[in-house]
Amino acid sequence: MAPSSKAEKKAAVDAAAWMFNVVTSVGIIIVNKALMATYGFSFATTLTGLHFATTTLMTVVLRWMGYIQPSHLPLPELLKFVLFANFSIVGMNVSLMWNSVGFYQIAKLSMIPVSCLLEVVFDKIRYSRDTKLGIVVVLLGVAVCTVTDVSVNAKGFIAAFIAVWSTSLQQYYVHYLQRNYSLSSFNLLGHTAPVQAASLLMLGPFLDYWLTNKRIDAFDFNIPSVVFIILSCTIAVGTNLSQFICIGRFTAVSFQVLGHMKTILVLILGFLFFGREGLNLHVVLGMIIAIFGMVLYGNASSKPGGKERRSHSISRSSQQKHGLSESSELDDKV
């Protein structure tokens, strides 16, 4: 196959994977908002446990059908991943409870520089000036859209700190495990989803009671609320799978940058479904800035030297000195 055809095919698959993630992520936000606001189901951690239980069921069916092949993931690596992932979920819930919405959004924005730091330290990634500028513009645009009142206290800051670092580590680890152990997205979910489901379903009711002072066994599970819970769990299967696919293809930083497009879409859908009060001049301005930053980041990071491993650059220079071919190095960019 010609190089241009390979590039076109990769671009098409990347776009499909990203759209899959956007549709499922925005869909689950809207469904969960309706579930919590309309039916009063405020048990977020337990609901996440149900999401992973449904995802586990999906992986069992796919393994039985032969779509998931046997693979190996060392137990210490699995436990580290689940630890990061669960701290991420719990940290985000607690951070939202203890902090203002403005500081919560700032904490979410800080995941991009933290993810960049992890790639620089562990993967020796080097970013060009234009790539860094694109990231800064995205951060600025989303901040203009979402950050309003900003207040913070000591325990809120600690919760946000744990949430940011655990989420960034979890997303980095998805890419790390897929790369180092040659795991597909289905394989990795098959290893991690059962452990996350079991741990979150055991922890969730107690944590949710602590956060909301409501007991899940006292909730009125009527037919409409159960339908929404089932719908949320069904969409979550796609969300979990698409997250692993996207991080495996784009790396954690690109996933975070592109992920803010979902924030923009949620704001737009909120305007369409819930009224005009959520959309004003500074929100529109922030959307324009953020979208411009995403285009700038995508263009800059795709250029030679926009985002690459330092070790590969050094290796290429060494090969040039010894008269060796450079062609194989062109495939090593991330």
Provide tags for this entry.
single chain, 334 residues, mainly alpha, two-stranded antiparallel sheet, 79% helix, globular, disordered C terminus, Nucleotide-sugar transporter family protein, membrane
Give the ordered list of helices and strands: HHHHHEHHHHHEH
**What is the spatial order of strands in the main beta sheet?**
1-2
How would you characterize the largest beta sheet? 2 strands, antiparallel
Please compute the radius of gyration using only Cα atoms: 21 Å
Helical content (DSSP H or I, runs of 4+): over 70%
> What is the number of E strands?
2
Terminus-to-terminus distance = 21 Å
Write down the overall geometry: globular
What is the percentage of strand-forming residues?
Answer: under 5%
Helix and strand composition category = mainly alpha
Low-confidence stretches: 312-334
* Mean pLDDT value: 81
Helices, by number, come to 11
Membrane topology: Multi-pass membrane protein
Pfam families: TPT
Protein name: Nucleotide-sugar transporter family protein
InterPro entries: Sugar_P_trans_dom (IPR004853), TPT_transporter (IPR050186)
